[in-house]
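RECORD TYPE: inverse folding
INPUT: structure tokens
STRUCTURE:
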């Protein structure tokens, strides 16, 4: 697409990036389609056939797609070949571990993709640290994998940490704050004024439940949100901080302020 290619995305689920917040997913699709990408959701891939130097991609209920290249992205599975004759308790082909990263065999730890808990490199790194510490000093360290930030390197980038709005509403009375990059000076100057930061908080205590970003440097900005949630900083406490100007991170601050209806650069909530 960016390099002059025609791109078609085939997604079996009812929306793209289905693990992300629904509002982010909807906005990303809108942006990508405006750029010329074709997106097919609720669509099952049936077969890929090589013919005459091209690929014929058969999808359920639609015309065949003729393409030069096809990229399949359907997840990963743990490789258990290296475990030898040791018998571990498994869960759907993954080595089952407890919160200390210890397997069903005492004294043997299995951090990373092999346990299937959170298949991200940075999560695996943290799991490895926890496993090593517990192996040396006894079980005491825990990896809070529910606070693992995740990013998708599309243009614009998408990133998230914590609960989506749908997940949060199942357990909490929530307040939502949102601020658009279209009102951010650096984003405008960088010709990257698309997307927003969305903050989900608990109304009662101001606890931050999740942060979702679509826009420039989302993969970088989400780490601030991850730290804020880990340190249990409330919305009110967050608003005591100062963010540099002009920076993309000002959008994060304004989104937190919007939770309380205090975003100076947004219209007042009705």
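DESIGNED SEQUENCE:
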């Amino acid at each position: 697409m960016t390099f002059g290619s025609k791109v078609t995305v085939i997604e079996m689920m009812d929306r793209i990036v289905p693990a992300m917040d629904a509002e982010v997913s909807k906005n990303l699709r809108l942006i990508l389609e405006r750029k010329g990408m074709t997106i097919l959701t609720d669509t099952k891939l049936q077969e890929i056939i090589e013919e005459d130097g091209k690929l014929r991609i058969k999808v359920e209920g639609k015309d065949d797609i003729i393409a030069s290249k096809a990229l399949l992205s359907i997840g990963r599975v743990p490789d258990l070949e290296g475990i030898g004759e040791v018998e571990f308790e498994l869960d759907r082909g993954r080595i089952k571990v407890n919160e200390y990263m210890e397997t069903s065999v005492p004294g043997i730890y299995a951090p990373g993709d092999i346990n299937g808990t959170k298949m991200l490199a940075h999560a695996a790194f943290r799991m490895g640290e926890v496993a090593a510490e517990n192996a040396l000093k006894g079980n005491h360290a825990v990896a809070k994998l529910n606070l693992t930030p995740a990013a998708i390197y599309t243009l614009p980038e998408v990133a998230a940490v914590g609960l989506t709005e749908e997940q949060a509403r199942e357990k909490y009375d929530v307040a939502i704050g949102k601020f658009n990059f279209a009102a951010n000076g650096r984003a405008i100057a960088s010709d990257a004024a698309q997307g927003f930061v969305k903050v989900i908080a608990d109304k009662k205590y101001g606890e931050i439940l999740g942060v979702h970003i679509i826009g420039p440097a989302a993969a970088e900005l989400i780490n601030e949100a991850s730290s804020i949630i880990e340190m249990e900083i409330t919305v009110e406490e967050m608003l005591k901080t100062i963010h540099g100007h002009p920076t993309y991170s000002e959008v994060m601050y304004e989104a937190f302020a919007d939770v309380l209806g205090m975003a100076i650069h947004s219209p007042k909530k009705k």
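NOTES: The chain has a mean pLDDT of 93.
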